[in-house]
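ugh ok fine here u go
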Amino acid sequence: MKAQGTRRKQRLHGKSVENYSIRYGFMHLYTKTTQMNPFTDLLSLLLPRTCPACGKSLKDWEECLCLICLGRLPVTNFHSEPDNPMAEMFWGRVKLLQAIAWFYFRKGSAYQDVLHKLKYNDRPDIGFLMGKQYGYELRQSQDFVRPDLLIPVPLNPKKQRKRGFNQSEAIAKGLSDGLGISLASRALTRPLATSTQTRKSRYDRYLNVSGKFKVTDAALLENKHVLLIDDVITTGATLEACAEELLAVQGVVVSVAALAWARL
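structure:
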């Protein structure tokens, strides 16, 4: 019974951490050395590790994206530019300390496919590993203002059960690992379901999500700098609605971050 309880605690919203490790991380654990053996040769055939952007096999030292695709990533460097274009998008809407994204979202690019696989192809590992890499980069920056807590944009429970995981939480878990900052996944909830944001204007998107988020532990957040995490920022309406709820807590300062920014 105790072992069964432990396994239940290791589940990531229906996706077993144990199964995830076997499926996507096992090869990495057993290929740290350059000397191969029949066991790892067989494992590479049974569980090939490929880059989700180009589809080529990953080298032993590569995680998620291959070095070529990682080098071609259209990075924003927004963490070094406080008044960046994405931050300007929130001016006059909600008070943020910083607004950053790792790379530009471009329709039709290989990186759009990567984000699609993360969200719709049952690949929370992509979110975790990319979040981890982004976290490492932010950790080395002197311009990045380190928060006290990370909070992923929550999904409505019904939608999360259907998808099996929250892609923003997968990214936040990776960022938490890379930055060495605590994650508060349950500090903000989304009890009310909303219709899809696709094809809505910025104003309609805001109306669709405004008032739909709730803080569950105000004491945890008081006088803290929190970093809201999402996968892709488009109009910023969802993050604006989340930030408004968080800013109602005494002394809270809010920043936002995402893997990608889709410039309109």
